[in-house]
Amino acid sequence: MRSRYRGCMLGVAVGDALGASVEGWTGERIGERFGRVTEMRRTERGLPAGRYTDDFEMTWEVADSIARTEIIVPEDIARGFLEWYSSDPISLGRTTIASMELLKQGAHWNEAGQRVHEEVGKMSAGNGSLMRTAPVALAARSDPDQLRDASMDVSRITHAHPLCIDACVVYDSFLADLLIMDRKAAWARLLELTEWAYPAINEALKDLLDSDGALDSSGYVISTLKVACWSLMRTDGLRSAIEHAVNLGGDTDTAAAVTGGLAGAYYGEEAIPDTWLQALDVNVHGVDDIRALADRLHELSEKDGSLPQ
To answer: For residue 222, how many C-alpha atoms fall within 13 Å in the half-sphere facing its CB?
Structure first.
């Protein structure tokens, strides 16, 4: 289980970093330039190979808050986001920026994302909360009610569109099951959950595995969820899952980060290529830091099965 916790956190980081080098590229352009992206690369914007972006940085903030407080406190997570936002981070989406600006002006953690959603409507259905929600599943894996409620709250800080909130619950539920069961069994449980509780997501997922994997990989939250699920279920390992998500093109860093969370939780830390792990040490929080944080989440989750809220 410790390996799976580490694999999940490190999987988000390596997915983000691998995808960052071709973020916004089409699959065709990636193919023409590289054939396939399989190793970390320096980005066109000058970021070094292995540098992760807002996807993992926000994931870190969620996990760090839980580890420090031994509780899931959206207000504390929002404070961490604000401190991080003041460091002038890279690659933020529009919904995240708009929500962070409202938080900066003093909006309550439960108001900022809602106000942005009310202002822009369906344009707020991005993947910016899905990309960072994995630590909630790690912390609350043994308590489905807490997992649901905390996933919803952590999404609402910046992304209050109902599809964003529901996608975070569905993703975290799937991830929690992948920690303890075969992926086919976890997938069957996911479809059962969405059929009765999240019909819009069930409609998007129910025939997903019959497709050829040539999916839209935009910033739309349901598109990213579909890419991550297909990549996990229809490939034969962590590396191939993350590479598939990257080489589709589009929102490559987020698609691969979300995929990496699932694949890492399922296959464990040992499945991550050493070259990918070594590249992460260009970041402020390198491999050892991420392992230590994952271990802390594992320790907390083993205490009594759930955290206080």
So the answer is: 18
pLDDT for 56-105, tens place per residue?
Answer: 999 999 999 999 999 999 999 999 999 999 999 988 999 999 999 999 99
pTM: 0.97
The C-alpha angle with vertex 215 and arms to 27 and 7, in degrees rounded to 5, equals 85
Q: Are 157 and 109 in contact (CB under 8 A)?
A: yes
Helix (H, G, I), strand (E, B) or coil at 1: coil
Residues with Cβ within 8 Å of residue 283, at least 6 apart in sequence: 13, 50, 51, 52
Spatial CA neighbour of 271 closest among 295, 294, 238: 238
Domain range list for the chain:
2-304
Helix pair 2-20, 252-267: axis angle to 10 deg: 160
Q: Between 1.10.4080.10, 1.10.760.10, 3.40.50.200, 3.40.50.720, what CATH number should domain 2-304 receive?
A: 1.10.4080.10
If you search the block for the tokens 């899931």, which residue do you land on? 72
